Amino acid sequence: MPNFVKVGIIKRHYNSMLNLAFIFHMHQPYYKNLLTQESGLPWVRLHGTKDYLDMVKILEKYPGIQQTFNLVPSLVEQIEDYGQGKVKDKFLELSRKENVDLNAQEKNFIKDNFFMINRSKVIDMHPRYLELYYMKQAGKDFQLKDYLDLVVWFNLSWIDPIFRDSDPGLQKIIQKARFFNEDDKNHVLDAHLKILNSIIPCYKQFVDKGQVEVTVSPYYHPILPLLYNNRIAREANNKTVLPKELFAYPSDAKAQIDMAVEFYHARFGDSLTGMWPSEEAVSEHILPFIIESEVKWIVTDEAILFKSLKAKKRDTRLLYQPYILKREEGELNIIFRDRNLSDMLGFIYHTWKANDAVTDFMRHLENINSAFKKEDILVVIAMDGENAWEYYANDGHDFLN
């Protein structure tokens, strides 16, 4: 089973135990073109500086909290490529280029692409960045100093607040606010690579001391049932329009699992127990491959539980407990996420004040626990661990703390 928190305040009120498991899914598509070694988009680097490391580092303040993170192996491969200089990134290369050497096409690329971050929660918080945004919207010409300021603010804004606050050099650049020079820019870009190189060692440190459990997805994040056989789509929805061509590669589905297990051992040792199936998609056909690996538990969505049990409506008495799947190949534990609560964190609470959101979340837990009286239950929050926080104030740290 994943790491979970025993919610003691609820225990004292009701003499029962609500076990709360957070599973944060860290993922990106595989952007790297193996022929050119170029990454088509910069999201691995940018989310790497903003989301993957701080989500673990925050636990230093809370040694009693245990946490589960799911890492997609192909994401980690790309993070490591950046650290080893094995990938080309147009956004990074143009950022590194001396400002005076930029040609007209490159300047247009910077102006068109370096505002790709949340407007209200990020750009609006920095007057110079907002000024540049309005200049772009108004079609005003950029001077060389404007391009340099834009490059710095774009890359600086993607660095998580806890790293900006703890780096005196970054603090000076923030206070400077404009009229940046090449040294300022390179300090920001060097900070990106420093953070990226710290991600996997930090996870390993927390795994070794038992505060974090790392799980994996199939290596390149394929939807395993469809990789096994695309006709399986009809089992989920018998009205699905299928392609004319049969696509069935069971051996590839098994290889994706086996590669993920091998990946885990190479970086974290022998403690792998869990897997997040890509897009939480599961079917009977792939269970033997998972059971025959060393994976002991998987997580998926509550809708699959209710449909599998032919439940006519949402039933939390079915939801708030783990299950054991007994098959010819062996046994596999399976847990099901509370979709409503997971989606509240992922898509709703960022529109609220942090205190109000936390109060509402705790109220939901208290109501759940009250409904189950003296029973022990397991509530699973399984959600995207990276994209949600861009929409929260302060990158979600107020809410998370």
How would the blueprint of this fold be written?
Layout: E1 5-6, H1 8-14, E2 18-26, E3 32-33, E4 38-39, H2 43-52, H3 54-57, E5 67-71, H4 73-83, E6 88-89, H5 90-96, H6 104-113, H7 127-137, H8 144-157, H9 161-166, H10 168-176, H11 182-208, E7 212-216, H12 224-228, H13 233-236, H14 250-268, E8 274-275, H15 287-292, E9 297-301, H16 302-308, H17 316-319, E10 323-327, E11 330-337, H18 339-348, H19 354-372, E12 377-384, H20 397-400
Parallel strand pairs: 2-5, 2-12, 4-6, 5-7, 8-9, 9-11
Antiparallel strand pairs: 1-2, 3-4, 10-11
Q: Measured on Cα atoms, how large is the radius of gyration?
A: 23 Å
Supply the number of helical segments. 20
Helical content stands at 40-55%
Please provide the count of β strands. Answer: 12
- Share in β-strands: 5-15%
Mean pLDDT over the residues = 95
Distance between the termini: 24 Å
Largest sheet properties = 5 strands, mixed
Poorly predicted regions: 7-14
Label the structural class: alpha/beta
Q: What is the global morphology?
A: globular
